[in-house]
Design goal:
Strand content: 25-35%
Low-confidence stretches: 220-243
CATH class: Alpha Beta
CATH topology: Aminopeptidase
Pfam family, one: Acetyltransf_7
GO molecular function, one term: acyltransferase activity, transferring groups other than amino-acyl groups
Shape: globular
InterPro entries: Acyl_CoA_acyltransferase (IPR016181), GNAT_dom (IPR000182), Trichothecene_AcTrans (IPR052523)
Protein name: N-acetyltransferase domain-containing protein
Number of helices: 7
Largest sheet: 8 strands, mixed
Order of helices and strands: EHHEEHHEHEHEHEE
CATH architecture: 3-Layer(aba) Sandwich
Number of strands: 8
Organism: Sclerotinia nivalis
CATH superfamily: Gcn5-related N-acetyltransferase (GNAT)
Length: 252
Amino acid sequence: MSPYTLKKLQTREELDAVVDVIFKAQYSPYMPSSSIFFPVSGYSLEDRAAGVAASQERLWKEHLAADPAINHWIIVEENASSKIVGGCLWKWHDGNPFPDGVPKPNVYWWPEGEAREFCEEMIRQSMTPRSLWMHGKNAGLYMMVVDPDHRSRGVGGLMMEWANTRIDEMGIEGFIEANELGRRLYEKWGYRVVMKLDLFIPSNKSDLWNKLAHELKMPPWYASKFDQSGFKPNRAGLSGISIPMYFLISNR
């Protein structure tokens, strides 16, 4: 019998616990790019606590505003302690959510200014493969996290099994962006890398963009399903500083 139980997220307390896991996981190992989505404005314990609280409030408001037919939050609890040790957000789409290309994201949780513009551009570029491949009904993984103390114990597998069962039942495709830490899990569950992306900085930007490119550096990301040669963006007017990502699609 598994020491863990999977269930759908229901309460604010459960989502708050998932955010706690996110902040714990993004520092073990440290993944600077996570700060794009979960920023901390300073270096003290108080600054970190404020960042956690702000992210908890933001994700709960977004959860309440989301269409429950599209957004599906899943959590995993440890049976012995009733502690939440993992969570994921899948979105089900009837078609391409970006038929006209990826619009500029609104990273409203960052203060207005160049840093926010940088984060918005990096997210826009990273979502480009979805706009190219999401043609029919599909499912996209937007977030998955496992408590570092519970990695390699089947927590991620429970969440992938839940998603794959529904993807197979519906006969649709699944899409994932992944870093090196999660790549092996996704490949184990039928995903394979389609392409590697390089996120580029427009050459007309200030030195702050170069600074942020290093401070918020993306780890390798992946995607699985189709055997494609890879997305080659038009790099005219772009700087030579790149941030590697990978895109995966379901091999089902």
